[in-house]
Write a structure and sequence with these properties.
By secondary structure, the protein is α+β, with helices and mostly antiparallel strands. Helices cover 41% and strands 19% of the residues. The chain has one domain (30-166). A hairpin with a 3-residue loop joins strand 5 and strand 6 (131-136). The chain starts with a helix and ends with a helix. Keywords: Membrane, Transmembrane, Transmembrane helix. The chain crosses the membrane at residues 6-24. This is Preprotein translocase subunit YajC.
Length: 174
């Protein structure tokens, strides 16, 4: 028995060293999310974590943001978020404005079309001072990421111009 004791001590010491190292190793899910976010960054998108819309519960989800070309005079700060139930009083089916802050009517058609093409795991469309973004849970993987990149590239120019305030000299006719 005394010959086995040093072997048990060595195995125990190895387990004490290897265990925490393996615990810190990123999971398959973590590596997949890092790859999605890295690919988005290479495509020129910014990725931020934000709380989920209140109707979807607690937690966070990534927002993939396409930067504005010209950030001057934009009416931002509005969020179109997914609701729990579909209702005719909502902006579009399951989608409605957060806190009643509405985007300019000029972009409603583009937003409705964009909503119809979003991946099923999309949670919100967010207009910030930096750009237009889509919050999603990233469960649709690479296909969903490619779809988001495509939609943001396609709709950003129209939305950007639709939410731009006119110059003073244009609005007065001078």
């Amino acid at each position: 028995m005394s010959g086995w004791l040093p072997l048990f001590i060595i195995l125990f010491a190895v387990a004490l060293v290897v265990g925490p190292v393996m615990w810190l190793k990123p999971s398959t899910r973590d590596r997949r999310l890092a790859a999605l976010r890295g690919d988005a960054a290479k495509a020129g998108l910014t990725v931020q974590m934000m709380p989920l819309p209140a109707a979807l519960g607690e937690g966070t989800a990534a927002v993939y943001i396409c930067r504005w070309e010209d950030r001057r005079r934009l009416q931002t700060g509005w969020v179109l978020e997914r609701q729990r139930v579909e209702h005719e009083m909502h902006f579009a089916g399951y989608w409605d404005w957060r806190n009643g802050r509405v985007a300019p009517r000029a972009v409603w058609g583009s937003l409705r079309k964009m909503l119809s093409e979003l991946p099923a795991d999309a949670c919100a469309i967010i207009a910030t001072g930096n750009g237009i973004g889509v919050q999603w849970r990233e469960t649709s993987g690479a296909a969903g990421a490619e779809k988001l990149q495509s939609l943001l590239s396609e709709f950003r120019p129209d939305i950007e111009e639709g939410i731009r305030l006119p110059r003073r000299d244009q609005s007065t006719g001078e």
